[in-house]
Amino acid sequence: MVCYAYQELIKNIKADNQMPVLFVGHGNPMNAIEDNRFSETWQEIGRLLPKPEAILCISAHWETWGPAVNILEKPRTIHDFGGFPQELYDAQYPAPGSPALAQRVQESVHSIVISADSDWGLDHGCWSVLRRLFPNADVPVVQLSLDYTQPARFHFELGRELACLRKEGVLILGSGNMVHNLRRIVMVSDDFNEAFGLDWALEASKQLKHLIVEERYEDLIHYQSISEELLLAVPTPEHYLPLLYSLAVKQDGDQMAFFNDEPLGGSLTMTSLVIGGA
């Protein structure tokens, strides 16, 4: 079920039941420092959300051979991009890590061994969003990597094993983009954030939202066989897979609401999702 007023959905969430879930289209790294309609919505949602005990983030920008979870007490802010203003490289997000949550992730997953990583910090798929959701950087954050050797079903099933963390006060955050084809970007003005979508991107977005609303997870797992539009929308899986993690932890009785549901640059969408129950 989808409740289209995300503010109302979040306000009705009872934190003592289980934490909500987010999938966020993170888009341009500049959203971390620019005030625009996307970053302002992230800020609003951060004010409305019950404060989590910790955050588990699955970002499009950490891929590994075999899944890993970072165990650092003080994860570094990773500036994994190029060609941006110095102000963005100067931005930091000094949130603490949580070795305890990392251990809970390892304990919760029985289908495969989750490796402990002591090098990776918080990449921009993670911190650019959290910098707006929780600007005080006072909530512990752990990242779980994407195993690039595995198909979509593996990621969905792994996500299901993480659902128990919601009842422990953990906010699960998937960060990517539903439609993400950088090779087909079309700039219609100097403003990258001007809403514009090519016909195939708009159709792909429509198809994905329909499947999400209908909870047709098998189709979402087999997205490559649905349409030519989705093949263009998801030319590589890393920005799509975090969506499957967020959907996998949805529970009976949860409602869903879309936000930041706009196309950009012709071939990207910022469409995001909040999941939670009263």
UniProtKB/TrEMBL annotation:
It comes from the Bacteria. GO terms for molecular function: ferrous iron binding; oxidoreductase activity, acting on single donors with incorporation of molecular oxygen, incorporation of two atoms of oxygen; zinc ion binding. Transmembrane segments: none annotated. Keywords: Dioxygenase, Metal-binding, Oxidoreductase, Zinc. Its cofactor is Zn(2+). InterPro entries: Extradiol_dOase_DODA (IPR014436), Xdiol_dOase_suB (IPR004183). It holds the Pfam family LigB. Residues 45-228 form the Extradiol ring-cleavage dioxygenase class III enzyme subunit B domain. Belongs to the DODA-type extradiol aromatic ring-opening dioxygenase family. This is 4,5-DOPA dioxygenase extradiol. It comes from Pelolinea submarina. The lineage of its organism: Bacteria, Bacillati, Chloroflexota, Anaerolineae, Anaerolineales.
